[in-house]
Amino acid sequence: MNIVLLSGGSGKRLWPLSNDIRSKQFIKIFKGEDGSYESMVQRVYRQICQVDSDARVTIATSRSQVSAIHNQLGEHVGICVEPCRRDTFPAIALATAYLHDVQGISEEEAVVVCPVDPYVEQGYFEALKELGELAEHTWANLVLMGIEPTYPSEKYGYIIPADQERVSKVSTFKEKPDAETAEAYIRQGALWNGGVFAYKLKYVLKKAHELIDFTDYEDLFEKYDTLEKISFDYAVVEKEDDIQVLRFSGQWKDLGTWNTLTEAMEEASVGECMLSDTCENVHVINELDVPVLCMGLKDVVVSASPEGILVSDKEQSSYIKPFVDQIDQQIMFAEKSWGSFRVLDIEDESMTIKVTLNPGHSMNYHSHERRDEVWTIISGSGRTIVDGMEQPVTAGDVITMQAGCRHTIIADTELKVIEVQLGKEISVHDKQKFELEQ
Amino acid sequence: MNIVLLSGGSGKRLWPLSNDIRSKQFIKIFKGEDGSYESMVQRVYRQICQVDSDARVTIATSRSQVSAIHNQLGEHVGICVEPCRRDTFPAIALATAYLHDVQGISEEEAVVVCPVDPYVEQGYFEALKELGELAEHTWANLVLMGIEPTYPSEKYGYIIPADQERVSKVSTFKEKPDAETAEAYIRQGALWNGGVFAYKLKYVLKKAHELIDFTDYEDLFEKYDTLEKISFDYAVVEKEDDIQVLRFSGQWKDLGTWNTLTEAMEEASVGECMLSDTCENVHVINELDVPVLCMGLKDVVVSASPEGILVSDKEQSSYIKPFVDQIDQQIMFAEKSWGSFRVLDIEDESMTIKVTLNPGHSMNYHSHERRDEVWTIISGSGRTIVDGMEQPVTAGDVITMQAGCRHTIIADTELKVIEVQLGKEISVHDKQKFELEQ
């Protein structure tokens, strides 16, 4: 199966674990099969591979997520980078052109599109496979997954099927209704629209050419920033008559708020934590190295990360966004394609960070105009290149770099470094990248 | 006035702000007169000096608090160090001998003894002064402060005065009663015993010599660890007939738990914090550099420090001790006589700390057997001495020290240093101190 996972933008609603550069799908919060924790994207990727070991997975996302995706899923996953955010129709058009022009997928093959972050059972991915098969072999131009509603939600759009069969023609779509209308829809047999669908590659390619003037993937990529922001639902789905829907009645959760996310946690806490017996329905996600102690709380979520600490009533947690919008803070932790960094200390004219490089990886070869740097290697071994000079390094070695000096570090084993940045105007934007002459 | 402030032991009940090495009296939580925050000990010391600028203040405490006291009150405050903990009678005997033998105070002068951490108005210290004057000039051997009860507390001992005068003879003492008995006492005119009293120096000196075989302060200090643990109440107060009590009806609070401490806070939060409108009776004390966001909480205290994070119902917070006893953690922050340090990162074979030295101060000249160290100066200027060699240092300088090498750093201005410790067995006990040969 060809599957495109839409990996959306910054998820402030799960602050402090998600922020401008870390989206919720990368938070490691679910107990995986080997007991270690995995993120939503890792969980979904693992589930897809278990259902279809030949699945061709392409993640449609922005440039800012590429490092985290490679870090969590490895180098081999397909990534279709959107040069900028342009809603779902341009994103799906670009991913479709990418599959056709870059990956060489036949126009007759089906493509399944799915968000990157549903919290679901294995059966969901069986259903995705079936969705693709239907798209390849039936009369419909689009095949949607319709989720059996468990309550009259106001959060979802509804699909009204023509009949009660497992696979049926779609009669009409309804926008997010109020609870009463939702109840009426459900009595008519309506299904939730979870944004999951399949099509024959050539169908979306044709739609894309109808609506956008482009030649191929590369051309579309080049002019991506000029495209109109428009959703796939609006541009394609609502105008299409030949749509089928496949009913799905298994577990399906949209983990968009702390309230829903904590419902999916298998344990009351992740990370170092103590809960008194007087706590009731309390969840703690602690990414810090120090303990969290909770006493006498009810219906509360506590989340601590290098970015900050949230303590919220679970219901109230869905109103978090305006508060997080007010926080204008230095990014304290980030996953990069080569590893990760964490800010340890900030002063007026210095910043101290801890850098962890994965084995075999290296930073870009770069320099800074307005800061000196000192690296102290605290574990592992590798090599540094400073102004063209390569030298082996290991724990205890210290490398000092003046502003302007070009430098990188290459990890042979996992390598951890304390980096002290010194200067009056320390900024992530003060970075010039260079090609390594080797 | 001669005043002895009893500065008690580790206060786990205010974890994570207090711990084995930082007692609650050193937490900077009260808005001082200039808008900056002050600790209990700073507040009390300031209040005493305002009431009596000639007051001779002596803090009776353990060795572990000396650094924090000097750091918060300066070098000039008197400190009487107890070599080990031996309850209040030995502590008061030692402090009294110290005042007589070291400070040269006359036997005829009064000494006022008071805990270091009452949360009170200025009038309280006026009353202390009066207490001293009564001790010097009346017939009583002991003059106690009796606090007008505001409710039938089960937490305090009660003083039953012989009459209802402002100053009266004490008829008897009652141990901590149950609420019903407390109410009966209060109807009889009983007062709370806040552990505050005054005596003529010679009176306690005589009692000390009756109960302990010693010659002078130095001798008492030497044999301090052989002394019996016994309270001043039990050894002296309960056996004395000639006791007066002075009524005090002003504000008096004992800030021993998060619940009572937060009642004394003038603002809902100290440190970086956001509270939603849906929060009610919520207090936050955040010592970290990242924001705390609270939503929809009621009657909750949140406290975050480098040691950990507490989120507790206020009532429940008084049951904290057994939980904190379970935490066996590296000390993450400490005040020292020369400044402070904070642990930034811990790995198996390294530890990274930030050291702040106050101007004019220096570390001990010392070495480590089992670890190397790297200092990167991030701000200020001063001098390092490494194996006898002195050199000036300023921001950007890096000093590497092998295990065994003797070193110190002297701050000319405030000096901040990132120290990376490297070795297999990093321990605070791996430290040999040396005299500087200069």
SSE topology:
Two copies of one chain form a homodimer.
Chain A (H helix, E strand, L loop, with lengths): L1 E5 L23 E2 L5 E2 L1 H12 L4 E7 L3 H8 L4 E5 L5 H15 L7 E6 L2 E3 L1 H16 L4 E6 L9 E5 L5 E8 L4 H9 L3 E10 H11 L5 H6 L9 H4 L7 E6 L3 E3 L3 H6 L5 E2 L2 E3 L4 E7 L5 E4 L2 E8 L2 E6 L7 H6 L6 E4 L2 E9 L2 E8 L7 E3 L4 E8 L1 E6 L2 E6 L3 E4 L5 E5 L3 E8 L9 E3 L4
Parallel strand pairs in A: 1-4, 1-6, 4-5, 8-12, 14-16, 15-17, 16-18
Antiparallel strand pairs in A: 2-3, 6-11, 7-13, 8-11, 9-10, 9-11, 10-12, 18-19, 20-21, 21-22, 22-29, 23-30, 24-27, 24-29, 25-26, 25-28
Helix pairs in contact in A: 1-4, 3-6
Describe this structure in words.
The structure is a homodimer of 438-residue chains. The first copy, chain A, is of the alpha+beta class and 438 residues long. Chain A is 21% helix and 37% strand. Chain A is built from ten helices and 30 strands. The first copy, chain A, has helices at 40-51, 66-73, 88-102, 122-137, 179-187, 201-211, 217-222, 232-235, 258-263, 321-326, and strands at 2-6, 30-31, 37-38, 56-62, 78-82, 110-115, 118-120, 142-147, 157-161, 167-174, 191-200, 243-248, 252-254, 269-270, 273-275, 280-286, 292-295, 298-305, 308-313, 333-336, 339-347, 350-357, 365-367, 372-379, 381-386, 389-394, 398-401, 407-411, 415-422, 432-434. In chain A, the strands form eight sheets. In chain A, strands 20-21-22-29-24-27 form a six-stranded antiparallel beta sheet. A five-stranded mixed barrel of chain A has the order 8-11-9-10-12. In chain A, 45% of the residues are buried. Chains A and B meet through strand 17, strand 18, strand 19, helix 10 and strand 21 of A and strand 17, strand 18, strand 19, helix 10 and strand 21 of B. Strand 17 (292-295) of chain A pairs parallel with strand 19 (308-313) of chain B, so a sheet runs across the interface.
